[in-house]
Every structure is written in structure tokens, then in C-alpha cells.
Amino acid sequence: MSSFEAGETVVVKGTTKDEDGILVTPAVSTKITVLDPAGTTVVDDQAVTFSAVGVWYYRYVPTPPQVVGSHHARIKAIDVADPERASITDTEFSVVG
After folding, report:
1. Given this model, what pLDDT does residue 30 score?
2. What are the C-alpha distances in Å from 97 to residues 61, 64, 67, 85, 89?
3. What mean pLDDT is predicted for residues 62-91?
4. Backbone phi and psi for residue 19, each to the nearest 5 degrees, phi listed first
5. What is the pLDDT of residue 51?
6. Cα distance from N-terminal residue to C-terminal residue, the chain
7. What is the pLDDT of residues 30-66, one digit of tens each?
8. What's the rounded Cα separation, in Å, for the pair 74 and 7?
9. Counted domains in the chain
10. CA angle, 54 as apex, 56 and 2 as ends, to 5°?
11. With the CA atoms of 34, 14, 91 and 43 taken in that order, what torsion angle do they form, in degrees rounded to the nearest 10?
């Protein structure tokens, strides 16, 4: 798990690939949701930024009062108009005091 200092910008990065392992930028959307250590949603279904085909990032600055501890991020990529075919990735990062 990656660790960041309180007040530091957290950059969540990843890639999106098709079933053959080829990098793709989903046609419909790629969005992120972040939960703080108390389980409160602090980023709700926000679009990520693509820096290249299939390569994305999202910048997040944890704000008080609950910044220290383990944060959970869920990234959902939808490449077709059928949300049942979504790709979901979960990751965590820690903010230390």
C-alpha cells in the first residue's frame, strides 16, 4: 500500500486494458470513488484523466478532519453502454500524520 503525508497530493494511477491485454480508453467512462478512513465518501464518481491510451490518473488531496489512515479507492471503467460489463478495480492508500 502506498503512503502519503497528510496534506500531500495523492495521485491514484492505473491502466485500462481489454480482454487481450491491450491498453484501451473506455468509450463510455472511467470514474473513481474514494472513501476516507471512516468510510465516508470523499470523492464520488469523478472522471479520471487519461494521459495516454489506457493510462489514467486522478489527483486527490485529503482534507481534515479524517485524513490519517487507510483510504479506499474504487475505479469503474465502462467501455460499452451495458454497465453489467464494467471493469472494477479496488485499491488502497494510506495517509500518515
Report:
1. 92
2. 14, 11, 8, 39, 27
3. 82
4. -65, -15
5. 95
6. 16
7. 999 999 999 999 999 999 999 999 999 999 988 776 6
8. 21
9. 1
10. 40
11. 0
DSSP-derived 3-state class of residue 83: helix
Q: Which three cell numbers stand for residue 71?
A: 483510504
Q: Which residue has the cell 484523466?
A: 49
Name residue 4's amino acid. F
- Quote the cell numbers at residue 41: 465518501
Look up residue 52 and give its three cell numbers: 495516454
35 or 28: which leads in pLDDT: 35
pLDDT of residue 24: 87
Residues 34 and 86: their CA atoms lie apart, in Å, by: 18
Pick from 66, 7, 81: nearest CA to 34: 66
Domain housing 39: 2-96
CATH number at 86 reads 2.60.40.10
pTM value? Answer: 0.85
Does residue 71 carry a pLDDT above 70?
yes
